[in-house]
Each structure stands twice: as structure tokens, then as C-alpha cells.
Amino acid sequence: MRSTLETLQYEKLKELIKKHLQTAYGKEKLKELKPVFEIKKAKSAYTIQNNFFSYFIKWGSITLDDIYISDIIEESYISILDEKQLKKIGDFLYQINQIENQFLEYDKELYERELNFNIPFQLFEEITKCIDGHGFLKDTASSHLFNIREEKKAVSQNINRVLKNIMHSKLKDIIIDTTIFLKRARFTLLLKPNFKEFISGRIIDVGKSGGLFVEPDAVYNLNNQLEDLTSKEDLERRRILKNLTQTVRDNINRLKYNEQKIAQLDMYLAQFFYSKHLPECDITFKDKPIFYAKSAKHPILASIKGDTKPVDIDLKNNNSLIVTGPNTGGKTVFLKTIGLTILSVFSGIPVNAKEVEIGNFDNLFTVIGDEQDIFESLSGFSSKIESFKKSYEQATKNSIILLDEIGSGTSPDEGEAIAYAIIEKAGEKCTVCATTHYKRLAYFLQSKGFPLAAFEFDTKTLLPTYKLSYGKVGRSYGIDILKSLKVEKEIIELANEYYSNNETIMSQLEKELQKTIELYQKKKNELNKVKRQYIDLIEKEKNQKDELLKELEIKHLKKQKEYNELLKQLQLEISNVMKTKNTSKAHKKIREIKEKSKEIFELKTRKEQENDELKEGCLIEFRGEKGKLIKLKNKKAIIEIDGKVLEVPTHLFKKTNEEKKKSEVRINSPKTLSTFELILIGKRRDEARFELLRFIDSLILDNVKRARIVHGFGNGILKNMVRETLRELSHVKSFHPAPPWEGGDGATIVELK
User: What is the mean pLDDT of residues 707-735?
Assistant: First the structure.
């Protein structure tokens, strides 16, 4: 009996991520990846993943070297590590140190919260001090090693000098080769067999040509001294490597922790590269077990076939769904798309959909396929029932079961009854999505509250459309599919005759019901369209009303301010009268104040009197705009301004005899830059890059061919950013450091195409 992960080909889904992994650590982590049905963990993983994706989009992805040190760490327990192995650990520490520096520069918060390497800098420094870039022990690894190697060098030079003196003496006739050979840790000369007549020495080895490798007595003691120094050098080397190995052992936990972090980072990078081929998807997490996906695709199928049709998945209504439709129409792929999308969310794998809403599922079960289980001696029907039994027993109210053609493989009447019982009871226990060819069953389940959906079939082309329509039952179109497969004509005609003769009243009622459903759906769509228009109209009117109220409020505050000023003047004048007793002057001042108050408080009356002359069709002025009066209604009017129809109080506009100004056509000539120079000194890297891109765009619009960008010297961050950005822009013809009189390397001259 295959598991859910095997049925849905979960390992093939993981293969899509594996293609983008860069390290052995990432591959090990992917191998261990399995869905974890905990909504809080899934939500947290999605948030962290999005944070890393945002970092990669903003600052660029990271290239990882595949430096694998797990086997070296294990070996350090039982033996001394050699120079090559220690260099590899040093390279690993160097890489994570570089990654740490990059994150700390651009997003310190993300690094400290999610990555945060634990780098053993003491180990890194000791390896760097002792091992060179080629994996050899440095002379400076210790002072004792340095002295030994210096002494060896001196002895070797002395041996070479003695042997060269011997070669240039009377031995010319017996020397086969003028090269000095190192044989068995002894420096020797290659001589002819009769060498003893000319020189005293020991035979160390015999050459293939018959010559003898001879150690002259003159260098015997020097060779002994050199051999002794080599032995001392080896002892010192082992001591140094032993100390370095012990330091590795002391930091094993930290190294393993960093290995896990590299694996984690590699996974985020692989998921990011994989997601580049997918639509941007926003995932919403809910507490109750529901599932919805907009424009979802089967991720494995979509990676093989670029024209895979997307489908909307709606399991929010009653948490269940019954799907009907033709063979090869997409029903089974639909179920697998649901399963793989849910598994992706709970595995942290990017989803191939435009939008997902998912609830708190605790498990996913599938009963898909009709393969016989020969090991259990089960038929296809029995195997399916056994698979359902195990799933049903384990399922809870937060589980989801996907059933594909349950009840098939036995007699149609019994199969239909079995399918009804299974779907009905499973639906009471958990979320269910089932496919079926039993139309009566679909209608009956609909009466029980199960939502319906059907895959459509094009009867003209005799091909499935893979389009899912909700709220309807689909036909199987078996005879039509026979035609598309070019089965013998007589077989098709015989099948048609048998089907027609056995068409029941139920089938006729089904056709009428289908027509009614289609009409209902059409009316529903029309109603939704009118509803949207009505809502838009109400929203528009509300915005206009709010705008007018705001304008009236401003006018009211202005009049209130004028009123307060008049009141202060009146109070001041009364005070002056009380002091001077000059009533004539006071009466004159009060008349002036009265005239001003009329301007405030009688303004509305004057406007209403003016508007008494308003007639439908006359020209009016409202808020500085000229328009036309359409209709008068009591103290309100409908006016038209620039094609917009508004209803406003009559006192807010006035009649005018001026003709509406004809709309002017303005031709904007390209602006002229006063200077083609951009100063970036003092700005942050991201801010400076935004300014640079905006500056280049303005140069292109103004047809400017040359400009200067001043970034200063500093530590080179701005300079590097400017030149990397210019290198990426297609409109840039060339760029180079400015000449000395224009800033030198502290500025860049850019030439545009």
C-alpha cells in the first residue's frame, strides 16, 4: 500500500528544489525534508523564507562553494589531520566569515535572528597562520620549525657545493649525468661502474641504464646531518598538526552548528531560484481547516509542460467538494494539485499559485489510483477500500482526505452506494475532496450540502478543456472520447444506440436541471455586475459628498474667524466710547462694522437672489470651473462640468455669461539640465543606487549623452556600486574614471548611447 507521499510523488517535488542546491549540506537537508502539519511552524517558516527572498532580491543571491568538512570532523576524533584537511576547514571558516560580513553590512537584523554563525576565530587564525594557500605547512608555523628548515637549507646548499666541486674535477669521464640526485634521503651522483678508480664512496642505488647512484665520502657526514634535521622537522610538523587537530576537536560543536546553518542558507537559496519560475504567491493562514488556491498548477507537471492549465481550488464552502467530468479531463491531476500544494506549504516549498488560503490541517490522506496490491492479494477495488479504511481511522476533524473514483472497480449500482456511504461519513469527520463519474450520486450529495464542480469538455474538438466550473455536474463524455481516440465507427454507433435506448427520465431531468443551473449562473453573474456598478456609484457619490463637506467646513472656519475679528473690533470701539464719550465717531465705526458683517452673514442671501435668475441650460461657475446647469430641484441643482455630473446646493455656484474656456493643448519641450552632474557623497549605498537610477533615467529622457557622477574615494563602496550598476544598464555606452581636473577616481564619467 503506497503512502500519501509516494502517491503524490513528493520526492519528485523535492527534485525540483535539488536542481538549485549548491552544497552537499543542502542536499542532505533536502533529503531529510518532510511536511510538518503545524500551522504556526508553517506560518513562521513562510515569514522567514519571505525575509530571505526579499534580501536576495534587494542585495543579490549568494554563491556557495561546496566545502564539505563533516568527514574531516569525524576523522579528527581518531587521527591527526594533515595539512590538506586543515586547509579545507580553514576554507570553510573563511566562506562563512565572508557571508557573515555581507549580511552584517546589508541586513544585520535578519542575520542575527535567522543565521548567526558561531565562528571559532581562534581556530581560523591558527590554521591561516600555519597552512598556506596550497595546503602546505608554512615555515613560520613555529620558530623551531623555521630554524630547522633554515638549517636544512644551509646543509643542502653545502652538499650541492661539494658535489659540484667533485663533478668539475677529474671525474668528468665517469659522470653519466651532471644532475645531483636525491636517493633514499641521500644526495648522490650518477656514475659509471668503474667509479672506484677515481673516487671513494657508497653505492646507494642502481639506475635503469646501468649507472650507479654513488654517495661520495665527502658528503657522507653532511647527508647524515641533513637526515637528522629532516627527522626533527617531521617531529615538529607532527607536533603542530596535533595541536591544530586538538583545536578542531575543541570546536567540533561549533563547526557542526555552522554546517547546519550553511545547509539552511543553501535551502533558502535553492527555494529562491526555484520560485523565480513561479507566480508571486501570498499565503494566508487560518485556524480552521479550509483550503483555497487561485490559479494553482501541479508543480511537477508544470515543470515538464509549460502550458499546464491553472485551476482555482475552493474548499472553503462546507470544507468539501465533489468533482465530476470526463475521463482524462483533469480530475486526478486536480486532486494531486491539492495534495502537492498543501504539502508544499507545510514543507516550506514555494507554491505554484497566485494566492493561497490554508487552514490548520494536521494530516493529508490520499486514495488515488486503482493499482492492484499483489503482495496483499488485493484487487484494485479492494486496495482502494483498504487504503480508505486506514486513512479514515487515522483522520481527525482537522484532516483532509482526497478520494479518486471511490467505489469504482465493482458493479455500478453497488459502487455508487459504497461511494455515497464513504463520502457522506468521511465528510462528517473531516474535509473531503472526491471525484466521481456517478452523476446521480453527485446530485444526491449536493442535496446533502456538498458543493459541486465539473471539468468541462469541448464537444466540437472532442478534447477536454481542463477548465473547472463550480456549482455544476459534468458528463463523462465517454462516447465522445471514443471518437477522439478514433475507435472503429461501428463500435461508436453501437455504444450510442445502447446509451440512447437506456436513457432514463433521470437523464432528461438532469438536462433540464443543467439548463436551469446555467441560467441561474448567468443571472447571478449579471446581478454581481450590477451590484459592483451600484457599489462604485455609491462610493463615487460618497467621495464627492465628503469633498463638498470638507470645502464647506473650510469656509465655515474662515467666516468664523472673520466674525471673531469683527466682534473684537466692536468690543474695542465700545471701550473707546466709554472712555471718550465721542458717540458720533462710534456710530460711524459701528456702521462700518455693520457693512462688513453683511458681507459675511448676508452672502448666502445675495447668492440665492442672484441664483433666482438661474435657468436650466445657462452657464454657471462652480469652484472656479465653468459648466452648465442641467436641472433645478428646490435649493439644489444638477450641473455638468468637464463631462462630470454633480448635484450641489444652488448657493455654492453662480450664473456666468462667460463662455467655457476651450481646452488648451500644451506642448512640453524637453527640460534642459543646468548641470549634468550627480553628487552621491554622504549617501547610503541603497539610497545612492536609487538616486543613480533616477538620474540616468532623466538623462535618457533629456537626450543627454555625457554626465559626471561624484561618489568620492572613501572605502570604495559607492564607487563599486556606481560602476557595477552602470555595467548592468543597457543605455550606458561606456564609463571611466574622471580626469584629474574633474575629480579623478573620486568621480565617474558616463557616456550614454
Answer: 86
- What pTM, to 2 d.p., does this model score? 0.62
Model confidence pLDDT, tens digit, residues 558-579: 777 777 777 777 777 666 666 6
Contact yes or no for 726/735 (Cβ under 8 A)? yes
Catalogue the E-assigned strands of 307-437: 311-314, 320-324, 355-358, 363-367, 399-404, 431-435
3-class DSSP state of 294: strand
Q: What is the mean pLDDT of the chain?
A: 82
Q: Is the pLDDT of residue 691 over 70?
A: yes
Exposed, middle or buried, 189 (CB in 10 Å: 0-12/13-18/19+)?
buried
101: number of Cβ within 10 Å = 11
3-state SS of 54-108 is HHHHHHCCCCCCCCCCHHHHHHHCCCCCCHHHHHHHHHHHHHHHHHHHHHHHHCH
SS3 readout for 173-230: HCEEEEEEEEECCEEEEEECHHHHHCCCEEEEEECCCCCEEEEEHHHHHHHHHHHHHH
Q: In what order do the strands lie in the sheet with 654-655?
A: 644-649, 636-641, 625-633, 619-622, 654-655
Q: What are the backbone angles phi and psi of residue 401, rounded to the nearest 5°?
A: -120, 130
Q: Running DSSP on this structure, what letter comes out for residue 538?
A: H
**Which of the four pLDDT bands, split at 50, 70 and 90, describes residue 621?**
confident
* 30 — pLDDT class (breaks 50, 70, 90): very high
Query: Measured between alpha carbons, how far is 536 from 541 in angstroms, rounded to an integer?
Result: 9
Surface-to-core class of residue 332, CB atoms within 10 Å of its CB (0-12 exposed, 13-18 middle, 19+ buried): middle
